[in-house]
Write a structure and sequence with these properties.
Blueprint lengths: L1 H20 L5 E7 L5 E8 L9 E7 L5 E3 L3 E2 L5 E5 L5 E9 L8 E9 L8 H6 L7 H11 L17
Antiparallel strand pairs: 1-2, 2-6, 3-4, 3-5, 3-7, 7-8
Length: 165
């Protein structure tokens, strides 16, 4: 009887100890408006508030007119954040992000409203690229690469500077 009791205690200690080893860490999103006023910066952080890089997440953006833009699954960059152009129309944009979790982090999601009040298109990705600023901002460069690589932003004949690559 004594041996069975001892075996049960050792087994309980082992199971209890393993639960801490295999426990996943909590994660949370932060959504902020960038300095241009047209974009949102999405960051995924761990429980110590450190950015979590290179993980997949989903995002949808509801525009002021109610239209919903659901993007294909995205991957956070090496800094653990991405920037998403909201629009140039003044109003409230509702951003919903969802991380399904992985072997290290628990799932999380966040919905936040960002108000665009900048007016005009002066700081849009199109003007950023058209004014030959590519390379000045890593966040904006990655945003353009992630979201406009297949669009005419690179092929605008008004801003063609002789480079074809």
């Amino acid at each position: 009887m004594r041996n069975i009791f001892l075996i049960l205690i050792v087994l309980c200690i082992f199971i209890f100890g393993m639960s801490f080893v295999s426990a996943k860490e909590d994660a949370h999103f932060e959504i902020d408006k960038d300095q241009s006023g047209y974009s949102a910066i999405i960051t995924l952080k761990d429980s110590s508030n450190n950015p979590i890089p290179i993980v997949k997440f989903s995002i949808s953006i509801t525009k002021p007119n109610g239209a919903v833009r659901t993007l294909p699954t995205k991957t956070l960059n090496n800094t653990g954040q991405n920037i998403f152009f909201l629009g140039t129309t003044n109003g409230n944009y509702v951003i919903t992000v969802n991380f399904k979790g992985n072997d290290k982090y628990n799932p999380c999601s966040l919905t936040k409203t960002i108000t665009v009040t900048a007016g005009g298109r002066s700081n849009s990705p199109y003007n950023y690229y058209d004014n030959h600023n590519y390379g000045d901002s890593l966040r904006m460069d990655e945003y353009i690469y992630d979201n406009y690589w297949d669009e005419e932003i690179y092929d605008d004949p008004r801003t063609y500077d002789g480079e074809w690559y």
